[in-house]
Design goal:
Blueprint (H helix, E strand, L loop, with lengths): L8 H11 L9 H8 L3 H9 L9 H9 L6 H21 L61 H9 L10 H13 L2 H9 L6 H12 L3 H8 L22 H9 L3 H10 L6 H9 L1
Helix pairs in contact: 3-5, 7-8, 7-9, 9-10, 11-12, 11-13
Length: about 290
């Protein structure tokens, strides 16, 4: 009897597409080797087999596609090309005539009204920003061998996402600022700068990203999160922009507890943060 491992590679591809089983590639060493070496086009086909182009918003699909661990730049590019072809084909095949315009004096039923069948009419919502999945940032941690650089993951993929004209810019504050907080925890300065440049905010979870930087006793990171870069051309007077967020007494208290004297001075002298009574007592004991 022919075993699953003995099937031709092309047939194994069909089996995986039919089953959509994430466990199939790890059932044996041979299957793992086969699917590990499969081309980006097949990986894209496998991912898109989980969706129907005419039953989901494009941004929702992008958000879910990015959650797949096998989604790299080449795979995502193949997904976008395949999706565009499928969507174009689906549009061309539609031959339903448009409903006639209402006559003068008649009123068109609202698209949000309940139709006779009992379910509301589906209205196309504006394209929302795709989410950045947690998996891209979950593994970030401080490095001891060297500092993070621009080519370290997930920066190349993020640059592709924000530069691609085929994808709406993802929401940098997905999951309540998870990406920025993890980047600060890892002291991944190029990633922090990239996220801030594309709209990430340190406000989420009561300024958790700033609190993490305080606990690390990293004044440059604290400044980077709170202050915006000055703008102005070469030779022109630079204009200072409004801070991203206001320093709170809780942040000052966290700096005192962390014994980060330089951050305490920055908060009190540069940012004018007034300590509460408890923080004053803590300062007197330092």
């Amino acid at each position: 009897m022919t075993a699953l491992d003995d099937l031709p590679i092309e047939l194994l591809y069909e089996v995986l597409l039919y089953s959509l089983s994430a466990a199939l590639p790890i059932t044996s060493r041979r299957l793992h080797a086969i699917f590990d070496a499969c081309p980006a086009s097949f990986r894209a086909q496998y991912i898109l087999s989980h969706f129907e182009p005419d039953q989901a918003h494009f941004s929702d699909v992008v958000s879910k596609v990015l959650r797949f661990p096998l989604c790299s730049i080449t795979v995502l590019d193949a997904v976008l090309r395949t999706w565009a072809v499928d969507a174009s084909t689906s549009t061309q095949e539609e031959d339903t005539p448009a409903p006639p315009s209402p006559s003068v004096g008649q009123t068109r039923p609202s698209e949000l009204e309940e139709p006779p069948g009992g379910s509301s009419t589906l209205v196309s919502a504006p394209t929302a920003a795709p989410e950045l999945p947690r998996r891209l940032f979950r593994g970030l941690k401080p490095r001891t061998d060297r500092e993070y650089i621009d080519s370290d993951a997930p920066l190349p993929l993020l640059r592709y996402l924000y530069a691609s004209p085929r994808i709406p810019p993802p929401n940098p504050n997905s999951h309540e600022g998870y990406a920025l907080t993890r980047a600060v925890h890892a002291e991944f300065v190029p990633l922090i700068a990239f996220l801030l440049e594309h709209g990430a905010s340190p406000h989420h979870k009561n300024g958790l990203a700033v609190l993490v930087a305080i606990r690390l006793k990293k004044l440059p990171l604290v400044r980077m999160l709170i202050e915006r870069a000055e703008v102005g051309g070469r030779g022109a007077k630079k204009r200072r922009l409004e801070d991203r967020m206001e320093v709170t007494p809780e942040m000052l208290k966290a700096a005192v507890r962390a014994k980060a004297r330089d951050i305490v001075e920055y908060f009190t002298q540069d940012k004018g943060c007034v300590p509460d009574i408890q923080t004053l007592h803590m300062l007197m004991r330092v």
